[in-house]
Fold:
Amino acid sequence: MSCCVGLLPLDRAAVLGAVIAGGKSTRFGSDKAVAEYHGRALIDHAIEAVAEHSAQTIVVGRDHGGLPGIPDQPAPDMGPLAGVAAALLEAQARGFAAVLTAPCDAIALPQDLLKRLFPYPAYVESLPVIGLWPASAAADALAILKGDGVHSMKAFVARISARAVQLPREPVNINTAADLERVERHGL
Structure:
């Protein structure tokens, strides 16, 4: 990708929200997407946060709560970038300019997330799966995933020259049951 396409003002009507939820939850020990935090599934917290900034919201890697679920691309079990690639392809098919992505296990996303990620492409430095991406970057994500190199979010952000954003308060990423217990006990 040769230029930053996201320099013009972006209205949430042009943004598809995507919650990335195709992981195996190996470190968690059970399906962390449906693990409860404050009486609601982690994935529901992520959906709510993303929906505030987008015209429509999808879940990638599973079905959940009546929202459209789409499979990772080009195949399942290729990591978060496959979820982002699927969301970018879906955005192109639906005519969205951009995609806001977040993992199903991140909580405490800032209310001004879209503003902080503009201009795009941009991502949260501490958790690169949280980002605002041009739909046109789908081919870049797929090229990385189909190539022989590293299939990582870091490779993707480098390829499209995405801007790293530091948040005043980092989102909490729940990887293990102990992480969730710690947040439940001590707060964010």
